[in-house]
What does this fold into?
Amino acid sequence: MIENKAVNSIKIKGREDKEMKVVLKDDSVKEYSEAKSVIDIAYDISEGLARMATAGELDGEVVDLRTMVDHDGELQILTSYDQKGLAALRHTTSHVLAEAVKNLYPEAKVAIGPSIDTGFYYDFECPPFTREDLDAIEKEMKKIIKAGAKIERFELPREEAIAFMKEKEEPYKVELIQDLPEDAILSFYDQGGFVDLCAGPHLMNVKSIKAFKLISSSGAYWRGSEKNKMLTRVYGTAFGNKEELNAYLEHLEEIKKRDHNKLGREMELFATVDVIGQGLPLLMPKGTIMIQELQRWVEDEEERRGYMRTKTPLMAKKDLYVISDHWGHYKEGMFVLGDEEKDEEVFALRPMTCPFQYYVYKQSQKSYRDLPCRYGETSTLFRNEDSGEMHGLTRVRQFTIAEGHLILTPEQVEEEFKACVDLAKYFLTTLGLESDVTYQLSLWDPKKQDKYLGNEEMWNEVQGMMREILQHLGIDAKEEVGDAAFYGPKLDIQAKNVYGKEDTMITVQLDMFLAERFDMYYVDKNGEKKRPYIIHRTSLGCYERTLAWLIEKYAGLFPTWLCPEQVKVLPISEKYHDYANQVANQLKARSVRCSVDERGEKIGYKIRDARMNKIPYMLVVGAKEEEEGVVSVRSRYLGDEGQKSLDVFMDDICKEIKTKEIRKIVEE
RNA sequence: GCUGCCAUGGCUCAGUCGGUAGAGCGUCACCUUGGUAAGGUGGAGGUCACGGGUUCGAUUCCCGUUGGCAGCUCCA
It folds into this structure.
């Protein structure tokens, strides 16, 4: 059956038919003597292609299948195998969703329904949907698809378009049209009577939707503002065929197994307790080992790179935050102890370490010879996040960060900034995470100047410096307006979790304002007082969040040096318990985290157990013949420096304990 | 903070149209066991998140609280 029937497409008035050449994807050329629609050209190429076509890409711009090609150009026919083509398919599916909702809930008002990375959504003003409702809506969608309405496009002048949507009692559409520029083309798509305002592109027929699924429903603010009404959003996804859809749905199940919030609890790395509170995870003994390993590593490396360590209070009088202006900007996000109205002294738990380290700096008069001055602190911070924001280890109310501040002369800024980035990259690379990050340059929003310290000129200067440094570093950072700290722009190193949600893992920030507020200075060569620049930075970010990232990255199969338990010694029967303990003691003497499994069960159980607990090394201890000890080493190579060094170490250990015979079995 | 969903042994879940609970896996003990993801037998373990209400009686129905999840909004 042919779903995409060639149609007599939108005739563009005032355009003469003429000779034209269309260059296709494979560089072949089609010549036409008159304007042709994209879908007609697709048919001309092949019927199979036309059937699969979802949109076109004309001279690099995604266009509707109905678009008339009336000039020489490059044309690619998009299908669901192209990302952009898939987006058109999903977008059309969202319209079918809207039609189904209107059929079942005539009082529902439609808002917007775009395609997104993972599928599509559509927002409605209507009561929330349950899973059963979604199933019913899916059923209705299937009915609509089976009926197979042709999708037709038409345009209306602005006033008529508004009148049209008013008549249909769709206030959100009216608002959308009113907010579009005066000269915008207002296109509509009609699928068998259901008409939606939409820029397109869309398929030719709803029948081409072969595989879709409604995923979930939730609330979402109209136009993304919490001041607006909350609408009901339905998320769904669609693919070119059922196999791809099923593979995607299976993938969703698979990634749940890597979710740090689930796996981290299962592996007893952390836990939460309702009476302790939201966003306050307990790090269990195993999780603590991992955090400690990271922390010692970071502290040692920072000292090697010229940092001085500080240890400053977890709270301070509010006066401190008034000076930094955190009180003005972020009081809502702080845990305040005491009542400003009643108490003489009000304290607050610290949400950052900056002002504390500034007072470390200010304890003596500094010369330019004292700079760069690098302070590092393993710093526990407290932020009163909104109740709906807490999540596992990635968004918590108390966390510990590898924080630091560098006090610098202007000449030192570039070199030190680069060193900060280099340090961060070193940590990421060693952990095997470097390829998973993206860089973001977070800039201020000149439209909201009251949110920031300083003025436009100063911001332009400091942002300019930062761009230049990034350019010198060869870092291609995506610029994000409005994401800066109130005291300066940031280079944010971002990573995505298993669900694709992005978080800042590491940040390096340039600040030319706070030194002034804290009256920090150094004396230059000429004996004059000068304001220093300050870099706020973290080298490995927040330990809790980094742990979450590692759990998801390695699905719990960590590099050996981080593993809470590195080696399990498995005696094949009770006879070898003594020998197993002897082996374990030798390992422990070398600081290997190991234990002996003395349960009287079959060796198979023990191996299974060690695997399930994601222990990288298993030493199977026993003898083939009486009096002969056999040690076989099972090793899983994970590919990072820490692992490598432990592998070498394990080789040595094995040689040492080789009194009889050693076999090393490398799995994969 | 907003909208919705959820809360039953360590885990995954069943169940009670209102009469104080069950499975599988795990765990523990004993037996068995010389080999790479499941040997046998027996046992322990639950105030069905917490607090109120309705009721002769609430794990079940209603309200509230706390916590968890998804999304939105926020994130120094």
User: Anything to note?
Assistant: The two ends of chain A are 48 Å apart (CA to CA).
